[in-house]
Amino acid sequence: MTTVKQCIDQKNNLIFSVSTNDTIEVALKLMRDNRVRAILVIDNKKLMGIVSQGDCAIKVLLPHKDPRATLISEVMTANPLTVGLNNTLDECMAIMMHKHIRHLPVLDSNQVIGVVSVGDIVKNVIEHQGSQIAFLETYIKGHGA
After folding, report:
1. What span, in angstroms and rounded, lies between the C-alpha atoms of 69 and 135?
2. CA 10 and chain centroid, separation
3. Domain 4-143: assigned CATH number
4. For the segment 110-127, what is each residue's pLDDT rounded down to a tens digit?
């Protein structure tokens, strides 16, 4: 079983974040420029929340609020669910499915060290299946025809 630590170690693990006092426009530009769908909200090295493109669309754009004047603190999900390095990706997937979320901040000693996304989990599943297929092909070729 793959752990969050193993997943984090394989990523470049840049942490994209804004503060509670930044505007939605700042967050959207950061997401666009870095091709991510959610970013963390961090004040003084403390995780305050998470904000996604969906949050911005539903809570700002649909009600016709001004993204240049709307603060992150008005839109973010405060106190998001988090995982630690020893959690497994299976546990992360279960949390994501049960809570209908796509990103889990990773904390180590209350410090943000990364994010695990649905994409990370899918990538891991595909890699694992590829390894199993390769093993089975070798087994069949070595013991068959």
Report:
1. 56
2. 14
3. 3.10.580.10
4. 999 999 999 999 988 887
Res. 8: pLDDT tops 80: yes
In the predicted model, what is the mean pLDDT of residues 13-40? 96
- Residue of 50, 57, 58 lying closest to 117 (CA atoms): 50
Amino acid in position 90: D
Q: Are 83 and 95 in contact (CB under 8 A)?
A: yes
What are the CA-CA distances from residue 130 to residues 7, 127, 134 (Å)? 17, 5, 6
pLDDT at 127: 77
pTM of the model: 0.85
SS3 of 68, please?
A: coil
Domain ranges of the chain: 4-143
